[in-house]
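USER: Please consider what follows.
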Amino acid sequence: MQTRTLGTSLQVSCLGYGCMGLTQSYPPFLSRVDSLRILRRACDLGVTFFDTAEVYGPYANEELLGEALQPVRNHVQLATKFGFDMGSGAQDQFHRPTGLSSRPELIRRAVEGSLKRLRTDHIDLYYQHRVDPKTPIEEVAACMADLMREGKILHWGLSEAAPATIRRAHAVCPVTAVQSEYSLWYREPERELLPTLEELGIGFVPFSPLGKGMLTGRFTAETRFAAGDFRSSIPRFSPDNLAHNQQIVQLVDEMARSRGTTRARIALAWLLAQKPWIVPIPGTKSTGRLEENLGAADVVLEDADLARMRKALEHITILGARYPEEQERLTGL
């Protein structure tokens, strides 16, 4: 598979694998055996960049990744995250920790736990999962610099952080990558975030690059999500909004038909075409979907294709927020 560089030196496959759905947010979950199988299949297909977090499970996601990839550890790059207070006991309706803390002593406890679960002596890319408003970002960056000197992490990044915060962090310890949601149906990063990253030489890792499944055409106006599915709480997936938002799927479908490929590959190829330092991390629990997603690396959208899609996007309005209100409050800090 083709590779891309995040920041100045972190070389990864141009498409990564987002592991969250194996243990969180989108039930039913795979068995341990099937989870290990799909992680190893991703590696066999050329994926070298795997994204997880201590909070996914919690802990279970990192444990799966550590077990699956231990035999090939020297050939892959592992990204995980810290920043939730795992001991606070505060959880949302989906049993996910909601309290934030990036105090240096908690970061050090978190990194040791992640190293053990991932069965490794270093983490390739260590993200602050959400910005902690009670801990100055300069303190977090200084802690990251210490962990780099100790060899426990090789690079660090931020997730869902505001441009001003990224600048402050980068001034203390250079940031390799920023992770935020970005796709054809959520393009807010184009306004301020992407220009900031380009200026500073920081890579971008879009999560939910397929719009939490929306851009694949899996959902219709009649689709309803089970109470345990995170999409059941997301405003843009509510019944009325879901029906309206089918127009984005129609755009992707038309482009896929014209290029003789699939909707997922068009959506991912569009992201890859935006900047050479963008590395999407689609997640899936299906081997067939995994192979489909990775095929996007071979889809080249011409300038005329991109212009046509941009023009069409100007006439499409997506209804509904991308997160429930309590989740959105944790972003953009």
User: Anything to note?
Assistant: The mean pLDDT is 96. The two ends are 35 Å apart (CA to CA).
